[in-house]
Here is the input.
Amino acid sequence: MKKQVLSISAAFALVLAGCGAATPTEEPVKSEETSHNDMEGMDHSSDGSIPEGLTEAENPTYPVGSEAIIETDHMEGMKGATATIVGAFETAAYSINYTPTDGGEKVLDHKWVVHEEIEDPASAPLEKGAEVTVLADHMDGMEGAKAEIESVEQTTVYMIDYESTTDGEEVQNHKWVVEDELSEK
Here is the structure.
């Protein structure tokens, strides 16, 4: 019995160490301060499908097919990697706080969900604090989750391909990075 409790405790600790999972304190840890690579259910790649209504950017800073350097660390292995731009879209991007529908710990400051990945949204951009239902499935338990908007950016968002700087994993059609999270190559 003691071994089972220790095994369950160890597994739970690993999950808590992952993508935006809460620590066993009262305050959850912000997702940008933890590694998405350690979290079960994080889908680094996507099928490349675009949410209905998302508008292509007319003159993006980083056009489709160009390369840029990733300056953010949503996940381990992103920062410093070379991104190939797969798509560029004009929209409102939201950082959200949500509790997964699969019973996982609350996730704070998950970046990014675009306006078109919100169920029946009001006109863009939504305000900080707005409560929404998420249609995105970037992580297990995200689709259908109730969320609160933490921050808003009206910007160009990019879907990118890149190779992880830590494990060499090829990531395709990663959604999303915003324009100020990229720099010239």
Remarks:
- DSSP finds one helix and eight strands in the chain.
